[in-house]
Amino acid sequence: MQTGTIARWEKKEGDKINEGDLIAEVETDKATVGFELLEDCYLAKILVPEGTRDVTVGAVICITVDSADLIPAFKNLTLEKLAASFASSAAVPPPAAAPGCSLPTHMKVCLPALSPTMTMGTVQRWEKKVGEKLSEGDLLAEIETDKATIGFEVQEEGYLAKIMVSEGTRDVPLGAPLCIIVEKESDIAAFSDYIETAGADVSTPPP
């Protein structure tokens, strides 16, 4: 399965969802499958309406929150606004190289604002490993904000050259570098020992 169709939403925005509840039916290339949630929450926003076809694997289809009080914050959120947030704050051009230092062309991906009140986030899980090929729309990581856990998607093709914030790292400030993406697979090795020398101080929890 590479894409799917949202056949039907079983829950409405604002509904309380219990662990194991069916929230949607997703039609794949082989069958129609029930999509269940694994924790108690509230459905704050449906981003992909019923009947939408060719939804890529890893795409953000809805937003869930821990408390009903947080639902209004996502009332006007759209996929376009979410994508604009990624595009405007996630990609940072490479810094000027220090004398005697030459790095290949690369893109530094920084933590964007994923909710209206977000000031920091937690890197829950990386969905890609260093060295993997990335395609536009691929799910790169899961980021926990002050209101929800949101999938962080890749905005352009490349290769994941360096992960700069480990899984489980909490209180990562907005704008902190998360990873580095390069255009060519052959450029990955150049970042094996790369260390960020400027920017936010992010502490990594003990193993």
Automatic annotation (TrEMBL):
Keywords: Lipoyl, Transit peptide. GO terms for molecular function: dihydrolipoyllysine-residue acetyltransferase activity. GO terms for biological process: pyruvate decarboxylation to acetyl-CoA. The keyword Transit peptide applies. Residues 1-65, 106-182 form the Lipoyl-binding domain. One of its GO terms (cellular component) is pyruvate dehydrogenase complex. Pfam families: Biotin_lipoyl. It comes from the Eukaryota. CDD domains: lipoyl_domain (cd06849). InterPro entries: 2-oxoA_DH_lipoyl-BS, Biotin_lipoyl, E2/Pdx1, Single_hybrid_motif. This is Lipoyl-binding domain-containing protein.
